[in-house]
């Protein structure tokens, strides 16, 4: 039932939000350039990797570092710095950059609700690919998004997400989705 719910509402979301996604993609293309979508390897169901989609919000800029410290230490040369132009900062703050993940939901890599997908390399380094949080599909939103700012220690995040994975309910998912909407509308409601 959860998978049917995911496909149904992700499809409706893509259709209804298509104009918003198109405008966000246009601004991304004009400000950041190509490619418009960033693809990141994340941990999915059963600890398998998948490519998570999102709008690119950072621009790479090359700069030459010839400071005395860099020359002295032998690290002078070209550096790549990343920054977010004001337009893409707004896209990121409004969370429009994650709308392409609705496609990840439709393809089965993600769910609407579940633990946020971990960066593949972080999960490998932390040795948590077999953690109980990966017994469910990662989600666009989840217990961590409505609970905290994401700066809690990894151990606490894993505990919350494992508890969610062991007790997934339709009612619980609806509650998380409702609380996510409240947080998006008023970030100070996060608790």
Low-pLDDT sequence parts:
none
**Which structural class best describes the helix and strand composition?**
alpha+beta
Helix content: 40-55%
How many structural domains in the coordinates? Answer: 1
Average pLDDT works out at 87
Number of helices: 8
Overall 3D form: globular
N- to C-terminal separation?
29 Å
Q: Got a strand count?
A: 6
* Strand percentage: 15-25%
Radius of gyration: 19 Å
Spell out the helices and strands N to C: HEEEHEHHEHEHHH
What about the largest sheet? 2 strands, antiparallel
Strand adjacency order, main sheet: 1-2
What's the topology here?
Elements: H1 2-31, E1 37-43, E2 49-55, E3 59-65, H2 68-73, E4 77-83, H3 86-93, H4 101-107, E5 111-113, H5 120-126, E6 139-141, H6 143-147, H7 154-166, H8 170-185
Parallel strand pairs: 5-6
Antiparallel strand pairs: 1-2, 3-4
Helix pairs in contact: 1-4
Please give a structural write-up.
α1 packs antiparallel against α4. The protein has one domain. The longest helix has 30 residues. The strands form three sheets. Strands 1-2 form a two-stranded antiparallel sheet. It contains eight helices and six strands. With 191 residues, it is an alpha+beta fold.
Entry keywords:
191 residues, alpha+beta, two-stranded antiparallel ribbon, 8 helices, 48% helix, globular
Outline of the structure:
This protein has 191 residues and is α+β, with helices and mostly antiparallel strands. Helix content is 48%, strand content 18%. The strands form 3 sheets. A two-stranded antiparallel sheet has the order 1-2. A two-stranded antiparallel ribbon has the order 3-4. The chain has a two-stranded parallel sheet with strand order 5-6.
